[in-house]
Amino acid sequence: MDRERSRDVYDRALSVLPGGVNSPVRATRPYPFVVDGGDGARVVDADGDEYLDYVMGYGPLLLGHTLPDRVREAVDRHVDAGPMYGAPTEVEVELAEFVADHVPSVEMTRFVNSGTEATVSAVRLARGHTGRDKVVVVQGGYHGAQETTLVDGEFDRVEPSSPGIPDSFVEHTLAVPFNDTTAAERVFEEHGAEIAAVLVEPILGNTGIVGPVDGYHRTLRELCDDHGALLVFDEVITGFRVGGLGCAQSKLGVTPDVTTFGKIVGGGFPVGAIGGRADVIRGFTPVGDVFQAGTFSGHPVTMAAGLETLRYARDEDVYDHVNGLADRLRRGLTDLLADHAPTYTVVGTDSMFKTVFTRDGPDDLTGCCEAGCRQREDCPRYGTCPKTGGDVADAATERWERVFWPQMRDRGVFLTANQFESQFVSAAHTRADVEETLDVYAEVLS
Q1: Per-residue pLDDT tens over the stretch 354-373
Q2: Which residues pair with 347 in a beta bridge?
Q3: Domain layout of the chain by residue ranges
Q4: Separation between Cα atoms, residue 46 and residue 226, nearest integer Å
Q5: What CATH topology corresponds to 69-315?
Q6: Which tens digits make up the pLDDT trace of 267-298?
Q7: 4-66+318-445: in CATH 3.90.1150.10
Q8: Which residues are catalytic?
Q9: How confident is the model over 224-269, as pLDDT tens digits?
Q10: Do 4-66+318-445 and 69-315 share a fold?
Q11: DSSP bridge partners of 289
C-alpha cells in the first residue's frame, strides 16, 4: 500500500483546506488515505487499496456503505422530486412518528442538521424552559463543537478548552466526573436552584467507550427531579445503536426529559434532532418562545434515508446481527489480550467496541468481563478499568495512534485513528470479517 495518489490529493488539500481536512480527527499521520468509495463493510482508497471498515462514518452507517434497495429507492424518490422546498413534507412527520413510537422519552421532535446543532438547541431549550442558566456537563463527554460544553476544569472552576471562546460563555457551565455520584450530589447541593439541565451521554462515546456504573444515571434522574432541572441525554452516538430502536435509555431503564440525536437517525446523511416531553419541546418557536430555525432542517432526502434505515433495521433483525458480531469480536479481543496485552481493556456494548490501552490490570483475569467492560464490581478489572474520560486519557494513547493504528491500517483494517473514538459494526459485516479482524489484531499485538 503506497498510497501515492492519496498523498498527492492531500498535498493539494493542504493548499485549500486548513490542515488538509474538514474535521481534525481525519488528519492522520503522516497523511490520511483518501477514500474513493465504499462497498458493504469495506472502503477503497484513491490508490485502489481496500480496507475492512469499523469507522463507519464515525457511527451513522448502521447498514454499511451499500444501501439496501428499499433505502436507496426511498432516497432516489425524494432526490428526483426535488432537493428541498422551504415547506413541510410528509416524510419528516413520518420519521418523527417513528421516533416517538420507539424511544421512551420522546413525544415530539425538532429536526436539525447536526449533532452539534441538536445539543446547542437542547441547552437553549433547557434554559428557556427552566428560566435558569447553569448546565452540568460530564468531563470526557462530547456534545459537539459548542461553546457551553467545550470546557476544561471541574465544578464551577472551568475555562474554555479552545481559543475563540470567551470566558463569559462558560461561566454557567459546571463540570463533574462521569460515574461519580458524590460529585453530582455536591454540584446540586451548591447550585441546585440555578441548574437548568444535566447534559450527559448515556455511555461516553468519544473517550474510548466508558459505560456507567450501576445506578449512576438513576442518581442523575433523581437529582434533576428533586431540583427542578431537566435531564438531557446526548444519544447522538448511542441513538438507534445501543438498545436498538429504543436507544440507550431503554437499555438503562432511565427516561430523560430531552434527548439529542444525530448519525443513524439520518441514515448516513447530515442530521440532528431534539426529542422529548411534549411540554418541553413545545418551548421551541413557533409555539414557544425559544428561538430555533434552520433552512435545511427536516431535509426530505435525509428524512427519507433515516426513516427507511430505521424501518429496515426493525424489519430485518439488524440489531441481532450487528450485536452478535460485535459480541464475538469483543470476546475474541478479550481472549487475545489475555495472552498478548493483559493490562489492556476491551470496552463496548451492542455494536460498539474498542480496546483501551490501559496501563494497569489485575494479575489474575479469572472472572473478568468476557465481552467488553460491564462495570461489574465483582470483576477483577473493576479497580483499573476506565470509569471516566480521564482514565482513558491516562492510557497509552500515543501507542495507539503512532504504533498500533498504522499497523492495523497497513494490514487492511480501518479503525478510528485515536484512542478515544468509538468503533462500530454494521449490518454489512460478516462472521468472516470478524475472524479476519481478530487475526490481524493477533498479528499486530503479538
Answers
A1: 999 999 999 889 999 999 99
A2: 354
A3: 4-66+318-445, 69-315
A4: 56
A5: Aspartate Aminotransferase; domain 2 (3.40.640)
A6: 999 999 999 999 999 999 999 999 999 999 99
A7: yes
A8: 142, 234, 263
A9: 999 999 999 999 999 999 999 999 999 999 999 999 999 999 999 9
A10: no
A11: none
